[in-house]
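Hi F.,

I've been meaning to write this up properly since the lab meeting, where we talked about keeping a consistent format for the predictions we share between groups. The idea is simple: the sequence comes first, exactly as it goes in, then the structure tokens exactly as they come out, then a line or two of notes. No screenshots and no reformatting. I'm using this chain as the first example so we have something concrete to point to.
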Amino acid sequence: MLNQLQKEINELKEEKNAILLCHNYQTKEVQDIADFIGDSLELCIKASQIRDKDILVFCGVDFMGETAYLLNPEKKILIPDNYAKCPMAHMLPADIIKKAKAKYPDAAVVLYVNTLAEAKAEADIVCTSANALKIIQSLDEDKILFGPDKNLGKYVAKHTDKTIIPIPEDGYCYVHNNLDPERLLILKEKYPEAEVLVHPEANPNVQKLADKILSTGGMMNHVAKSENNQFLIVTEVDMCTRLNKEYPEKECIPAYTDAFCETMKLHSLKKIKECLIKEEPIITVPEELVENSLKAVQKMIDISK
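Output, unedited:
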């Protein structure tokens, strides 16, 4: 049952010919009115396919809205709260990449999609946690400049013969990097039948305790197909909101109830309504960055199809 504010937002979406795209880490009240929910890869692909809407409202963080703009420059891209910025994306400004390219001229540049457009413009291709290994294996180069997430980089390095060079050396997601493996060990003892699904942004000591290391989209697919009925979900807490809604017959337990992305949670129903009424804040990308940024994103989408 939708509340009054949710109903008003749905009416505004229809009136404005708008679509609401939401990341898996949004709250339940936002997920309940989303037209599409997904991980970074799924949101990129969905954004590239939208033809019949004038406005895209993006409930995620800044780099996601920028990517939506790159793929839909003729549409109006709105983000309910302009302060929803990904700290990890801001750890990798373009200058760091330029210096690394000068130092390693024979290396390909593969950037996590969790980067700003200025960084993407310096990349050969981008990737997500769902397809990072596939993207890297598709390249001819033996050396890969990879950033900004060091933990995803370490995970990929274990599964490829290529040399992975992290840029910056210590980039990370604060939600995943600080997870305590001791707490997960206690939960594994409490729920011995549960499969442990860990996001690759988690630190290596937590990854070691996983049954599967998966993107959030990968977690959705695995829970849907698995014969197991109980899972410990090691990522941002609201991933379980979506999993338990879509698969109520299975038990998805958030391993860390305090794994909370503060910037993702800035998008309240009130702010979504206001941004639809005012049609702002608007997200754009500087014109001089669009061509190269889009090229890196489109290459990823083409390989991922």
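Notes:
The chain has a mean pLDDT of 96.
Residues 287-304 form the longest helix (18 residues).

If this format works for you, I'll send the rest the same way.

G.
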